[in-house]
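Following up on my earlier message about flavin-adenine dinucleotide. Here are the inputs again, as you asked, copied directly from the submission form:
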Amino acid sequence: PAEEVDEEEAALAAKLSAYRDVWVFIEQTEGEAAKVSWELLGVGAELAKSINVALCAVVIGEGVGHLCQEAFSYGASKVYLLDQPVFHYYRTEPYLNAFCYLIDKYKPEIVLMGATGMGRDLAGAVATRVKTGLTADCTGLDVDDKRNLRQTRPAFGGNIMATIMCDKFRPQMATVRPHVMPMPERRPAASGEIVHESCAINEADILTKVLEIIKDTKGQGVDIAGAEFIVSGGRGMMAPENFSLLQELADELGGVVGASRSAVDAGWMPHERQVGQTGKTVRPKIYIACGISGAIQHLVGMQDSDVIIAINRDREAPIFAVATYGIVGDLFQIVPAITDRLREL
Ligand code: FAD
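Thanks, got it. Here's what our run produced:
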């Protein structure tokens, strides 16, 4: 039996060793790349370096050749480019076929995608088709000495951090939310190899047709995920009209107003403004938490902010554990006082 086990292990090792390189899917809409793709090239470069393989980007679309240079400038050394009319709009079927075709041909060891609407859809479909594992919404990625990707993410409602590995299948696939990983440095002069590929997909065979694109205007154009200054309110705000206090402070800073889930569930703020595990992940220069206790599900969405200022009347509130500056007191006095002081400056 010991010999059988050895044989099994050897067969598995041989199967896995056919896979190499770290791939990042460059998500684009109308030729404009999602920033999370560049963030993933940053973490992808570290992973590729630690297992001594190449960092590659996968660009799929129509008229998207310009993204290859961008991918080089953010650290990729090779780009697999599929530039065909059938890829003009994102649709699961053609992108799935294209991505699986590339995986089958080039066998990547690790595949990373943004945990966006598109990335989540495509990653799940690809992992199912190629019969491998997928860890969604990772907050940390590194590689162990057996080249297994350690994928860390919150689990059980955010109460623990789980490290997940996919040690018997390749590629190892993970999605990461926007703003979780830092942006890598841009080197515009960097260059690399472009591998032009094409995939035999007929428009007539695709079940989904795009009839019209309707832009989402519900969030009123406020992008809390990309904001540099965020003033967030929680249950301590007591009523929806009190959020005007936060808006005034945000206006002084040139920032936006965010919210905890309690404030969103109470109907005080729209869901687009929610920060946290089931909301957005943010990484602003300054995050001001007003009347927010600091539950783990909130913290995972904002704890990487450069500076965190917490205002809470409970000095034991967990938010103070991650705060750069903590103010213990009544937010209804403190917030207007800060706004007034900023107006004087
Ligand atoms: P509370 O915990 O009630 O805190 C209110 C705070 O306001 C208290 O600390 C209080 O001391 C303070 N306060 C009250 N009055 C004042 C005053 N006048 N001045 C100063 N301070 C005052 N939560 C999120 O935020 N985002 C998520 O994405 C998210 N996802 C979740 C996912 C799951 C699966 C689960 C189970 C929970 C999730 N939650 C999320 C909910 C989370 O567990 C907490 O319930 C929530 O974050 C609490 O919101 P809060 O801090 O606004 O309210």
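One observation from looking it over: The longest strand covers residues 55-61. Hope that helps, and feel free to reply on this thread.
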